[in-house]
Amino acid sequence: MSKLFDEVRIGNFNLKNRIGMAPMTRSRALEDGTPSDLAVEYYGQRASVGLIISEGTQPSDDGQGYTNTPGIYTKAHIDGWKKITSKVHSEGGKLFIQLMHVGRVSHPDNTPHHRQAVAPSAIAPNVEIFTAEGMKEIPTPRELTEGEIKEVINEFRLAARSAIEAGADGVEIHGANGYLIQQFLSENANHRQDAYGGSIENRSRFAIEVAKAVVEEIGAERTGIRFSPQGTLNGIEEGETNIDMYRYLIAELDKLNLTYLHVMHFGNEPLVQEIRELWSQALLINRPGRPLEHLGVDVDNEVADVVTVGTWLISNPDLVERLKVGAPLNEPDRNTMYAGGAEGYIDYPSMKQ
């Protein structure tokens, strides 16, 4: 795994190694979406990775899906994130805030305004979501008008501006995991008959327009984007037909010179190789479930510039140091993944401890 610990240049940033922290919802923000002071310690503890990509952060009230997730659209949010970015930078790290609009993957009980969720089409995902009263079926969302789509694109723009104001090194646009952008991409979630539905070009339009808006606001050198081709999370069913759409979409986004593309990989090796050929900038790959001993394969084979790690970074804040010396790892506690306080969040011991 020697190349994992090499420096790498991503856009305008020099990363101290090729290990990234994948975005992971932890549901520990304050009720108004302001990151808690515990998050300052949480991210600071993990600043030895080359790049931290934050948990999904909503750009608006409509963008929230889960309880106690952070926002980046009010002054309080910005002030809360400033503490985090300052801590990460003081530890020598880099941090991109992930902008996540969940679309239909929400429940009125979980949002500040308690309104019906919005989506490309009024199609429920047929999955349940956690609420303060336990698991509930996600209701059918309301279809966005074309005018409202433009407003959502502007929410991404303003959230990106707020992230930079908060001291973030950049933002990652969340186009994966069955949330709003992937809902537009997927035929089973998008039945629109206008400029944002139907053809490959139309279903890709929203993702491209969001990326362009963010680039116009903060620059391509501060903008990344994440996709999960053929992923089935949150009721998405893309199938083989969407491979052509990703070929088109990635080629179009490549023209914007984004800092990086982050792919959540679900096993289609030929598609990953095609993406590598289509994409001119840095490529980040996340392979859920990959054994740690194989973590460096994509970097060693020059498929990826950076590999991102999820759960193991929850339980091992000093994961980079442990990997370097082959030290044993802390096992993650699945019962404290979401919500709660310090337990299972900032109390995992380092090797020194």
Widest beta sheet: strand line-up: 3-4-5-10-11-12-13-14
Based on CA atoms alone, the radius of gyration comes out at 19 Å
Choose one word for the global shape.
globular
Biggest β-sheet description? 8 strands, parallel, barrel
Record field, number of beta strands: 14
Descriptive notes:
By secondary structure, this protein is α/β, with parallel strands linked by helices. The protein has a domain at 57-303: Aldolase class I (TIM Barrel). Helices cover 31% and strands 16% of the residues. The chain is built from 10 helices and 14 strands. The strands form 4 sheets. The chain has an 8-stranded parallel beta barrel. Strands 1-2 form a two-stranded antiparallel ribbon. α3 packs parallel to α5 (200-218). The radius of gyration is 19 Å and the shape is globular.
What attributes does this structure have?
two-stranded antiparallel sheet; TIM Barrel; 16% strand; 14 strands; 353 residues
Short description:
The protein is an alpha/beta fold and 353 residues long. Helices cover 31% and strands 16% of the residues.
Q: What's the layout of helices and strands?
A:
Blueprint: E1 8-10, E2 13-15, E3 19-21, H1 37-45, E4 51-57, H2 75-90, E5 95-99, E6 118-119, E7 128-131, E8 134-137, E9 142-143, H3 146-165, E10 170-175, H4 180-185, H5 200-218, E11 223-227, H6 242-254, E12 260-264, H7 269-278, E13 282-286, H8 297-300, E14 306-309, H9 311-315, H10 319-325
Parallel strand pairs: 3-4, 3-14, 4-5, 5-10, 6-9, 10-11, 11-12, 12-13, 13-14
Antiparallel strand pairs: 1-2, 7-8
Helix pairs in contact: 1-2, 3-5, 5-6, 6-7
